[in-house]
């Protein structure tokens, strides 16, 4: 099985998104190293406008690669407060640096307990390893 970067400061969803606290009650969300490797070269990212609210599990955008088009699903409920507009012109940054430069959205989370309920890096690594599609 290939190796994947899984920073300990992030929490992870079963839908392959990561969430990291960025300070002042805000959180950043992106796709995991595993997800970007599965997708291949990212060519387009569609993100929502700031101010919109989404529930956990709800699709908030679309990511398109040379291989597939996939929905982006909210790992937690919250309001979009920022989007990574750099991805409009450079979507490949998701492949190059999915945990920092390739973040997707910033949110104000509705309930911090949802963040704590996401998987830690070790559990997410086990989740990846247990999948039958690998």
Count the domains: 1
Shape call: globular
Top-tier CATH class: Mainly Beta
**β-strand number:** 9
Widest sheet: strand order?
A: 1-2-3-9-8-5
Unreliable parts = none
The sequence of SSEs as H and E is: EEEHEEEEEHHEHH
Structural class: alpha+beta
Mean pLDDT: 94
Q: If classified by CATH, what would the architecture be?
A: Beta Barrel
Major sheet characteristics: 6 strands, antiparallel
Number of helices: 5
Instruction: Determine the strand fraction and express it as a percent band.
Output: 25-35%
Rg for CA atoms:
14 Å
Q: Could you explain the architecture of this structure?
A:
The chain is an alpha+beta fold. It is 22% helix and 34% strand. The protein has one domain (11-113): OB fold (Dihydrolipoamide Acetyltransferase, E2P). It has a six-stranded antiparallel β-sheet with strand order 1-2-3-9-8-5. The chain has a three-stranded antiparallel β-sheet with strand order 4-6-7. The longest helix has 10 residues, at 121-130. The termini are close together.
Brief overview:
22% of the residues lie in helices and 34% in strands. The chain has 134 residues and is an alpha+beta fold.
Key structural traits:
single chain; 134 residues; alpha+beta; OB fold (Dihydrolipoamide Acetyltransferase, E2P); six-stranded antiparallel β-sheet; 9 strands; 34% strand
Itemize the secondary structure elements and their pairings:
Elements: E1 11-12, E2 17-23, E3 26-31, H1 33-39, E4 42-46, E5 53-54, E6 59-65, E7 69-73, E8 78-83, H2 86-89, H3 93-96, E9 105-109, H4 112-116, H5 121-130
Antiparallel strand pairs: 1-2, 2-3, 3-9, 4-6, 5-8, 6-7, 8-9
């Amino acid at each position: 099985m290939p190796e994947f970067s899984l920073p300990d400061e992030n929490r992870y969803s079963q839908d392959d998104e990561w969430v990291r606290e960025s300070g002042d009650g805000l959180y950043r969300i992106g796709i995991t190293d595993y997800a970007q490797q599965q997708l291949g070269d990212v060519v387009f990212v569609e993100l929502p406008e700031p101010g919109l609210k989404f529930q956990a599990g709800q699709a908030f955008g679309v990511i398109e690669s040379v291989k597939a088009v996939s929905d982006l699903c909210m790992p937690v409920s919250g309001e979009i407060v920022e989007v990574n507009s750099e991805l409009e012109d450079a979507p490949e940054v998701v492949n190059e640096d999915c945990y920092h430069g390739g973040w997707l959205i910033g949110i104000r989370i509705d309930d911090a307990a949802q963040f704590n309920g996401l998987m830690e890096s070790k559990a997410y690594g086990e989740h990846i390893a247990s999948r039958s599609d690998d």
